[in-house]
Specification:
alpha+beta; Dna Ligase, domain 1; seven-stranded antiparallel sheet; five-stranded mixed sheet; 21 strands; 32% strand; elongated
Length: 507
């Protein structure tokens, strides 16, 4: 079964969508007309029921309507209609994974397999209409065994319409053939034959109709009979999870700002849950109320982005991350607008390891890291991150490393772990004295005593970059006899300063 969600007078309802709910419901009772066209001769393209009762018709000029008086005129807005269509698609996506954006103000969705989630078809249609109402639409809903029957039933019938399989022709019989995708010439021909309804078109014999009107005529007849079964063309538009709030009076306190951010995150997470999605990327944009013009722009923005290690739907985790960041910030002006965007991602599915020690929850780990950044800062004077996991860089430059964000997806399979000797580096390196026998070191001073070298490997000369001709560092790995036994150390000669250092000890 298929359901069609149709919004009558779509340009009018799209024009009212930006209004508040109370204002929108009040305006619906007033005559409204939407005009479009060249500035020299704008014409009415859509109107609501009260405007029709006043005698207003589509195609009238704006001047003609203004002479009637009492009609609220709105300029057609393509942006408002695109937003309204996106809202309509999002409403349908909450009920079915397969949704077709048939035309402006109309979407068709496949109801196969939704019975366990939403109940019987009557209940699903009622919930669909209520969901559209919550988003500001007064919509028609029709359910039928094929998409086109549901489409035409929704165009012509208000409220909720259910058409059982096999009753398509009878339920469509009274509709005018002008609703069909018919050319003006063919419409004129059919009306000259006295064919004005779906029922009269469906009753014509197929062979003579095909001889006179061709395959197009036969296709229209099958539409009138409700016999066309076609697949839906799913909408390629992905839902955007963006929530925005603009303050009447700019706010300065963290409590007022946090209250709105918390509400916006709650709305975004609810929408993610309705679409069976999570998020691993969060963006926050704050528009500041700067009065003076700076660099050609009126106002400033504060932007911050969080990339989470794992997808989540937990609003409290996201809010804690935002709150910790806002506590560190000092803005130059009050905040007049807040925008929160969450990037959708597939929810994570993990299986715990019975033979591995438990690890901290990824969400709680991310909050802890955010608190640490708030204390020590995000990066140092060299631009290196202060919080994360150190990783060696593939270079011969001594002491080269970078800091990567912690990841909860690291493998715990011990079979892949390669044993390696660890060098515990002294920071800073300990200055020492070395006596040589030839080129190799013979005695190395540790503390106040010299230790005899039992074995030495080297030298390894480096400058950090192979293309430089001057070697600034000469390294040796040595085994020294100590009171605790044999110790393995790394020593090096700084050729620029002509001084020896103990860099570290091997485990």
């Amino acid at each position: 079964m298929f359901a069609c969600l149709h919004v009558p007078d779509f340009p009018v309802q799209a024009a009212l969508l930006p209004e508040t709910q109370d204002a929108r419901e009040g305006l619906r009772q007033s005559p409204i007309a939407v005009f479009d066209g060249p500035a020299s001769l704008p014409k009415i393209i859509a109107l609501n029921g009260p405007a029709r009762h006043m005698g207003i018709e589509a195609g009238m000029t704006r001047l003609q309507v203004e002479t009637c008086g009492g009609v609220l005129l709105r300029k057609r807005s393509e942006a408002d209609e695109n937003f309204a269509q996106a809202e309509l698609l999002e409403c349908a996506n909450a009920f079915s994974p397969t949704v077709e954006s048939t035309c402006s103000g109309t979407v068709i969705l496949d109801l196969a397999g939704t019975e366990k989630l939403f109940g019987a078809l009557e209940d699903t249609a009622q919930k669909l209409a209520e969901s559209a109402m919550e988003r500001g639409f007064h919509a028609h809903v029709a359910v039928a065994s094929n998409p086109d029957t549901a489409f035409y039933a929704a165009l012509a019938s208000a409220g909720i319409t259910l058409i059982p399989a096999g009753d398509e022709a009878d339920r469509l019989a009274r509709l005018r053939i002008s609703l069909l995708p018919i050319t003006p010439d063919m419409l004129e021909t059919l009306e000259s034959w006295g064919i004005r309804t779906f029922q009269s078109l469906a009753a014509l014999p197929e062979a003579p109709l095909t001889e006179r009107l061709g395959q197009d005529g036969l296709y229209l007849q099958r539409l009138a009979r409700g016999q066309i079964m076609r697949p839906l063309v799913p909408s390629g538009e992905s839902p955007h999870f963006v929530e925005t709030h603009e303050f009447d009076d700019p706010v300065e306190t963290l409590e007022s700002l946090s209250f709105i951010v918390n509400r916006l995150l709650q709305q975004a997470c609810s929408r993610l849950t309705a679409h069976a999605l999570s998020t691993n990327e969060l963006r926050l944009i704050l528009n500041l109320d700067v009065r003076q013009v700076r660099a050609g722009k009126d106002g400033e923005e504060y932007k911050h982005e969080w990339k989470l290690p794992v997808p989540t739907q937990d609003r409290s985790v996201l809010f804690t991350l935002v709150r910790l960041d806002l506590e560190k910030q000092t803005f130059s002006a009050p905040v007049k607008k807040v925008t929160v965007e969450v990037v959708p991602a597939k929810p994570r599915a993990i299986q715990g390891n019975l033979f591995a020690p438990p690890s901290p929850e990824a969400e709680q780990l991310e909050i802890t890291l955010a608190r640490i950044r708030g204390v020590v800062g995000s990066s140092d004077e060299d631009g290196l991150s202060r919080v994360g996991s150190p990783e060696l860089v593939d270079t011969h430059q001594p002491d080269s490393f970078r800091v990567r964000p912690f990841s909860s997806s690291a493998s715990t399979n011990s079979a892949t772990v390669v044993p390696a000797i660890a060098l515990r580096v002294f920071r800073p390196a300990q200055e020492t004295s070395v006596e040589r026998t030839g080129e190799a070191p013979h005695l190395v001073r540790l503390g106040r005593k010299y230790r005899r070298v039992l074995a030495a490997s080297g030298p390894w000369c480096s400058s950090g970059n192979w293309w430089k001709e001057t070697w600034v560092r000469e390294e040796w790995d040595v085994a020294l006899k100590t009171t605790a036994g044999i110790g393995f150390y790394r020593i090096y000669l700084d050729r620029l300063r002509d001084r020896w250092f103990v860099e570290g000890i091997f485990d």
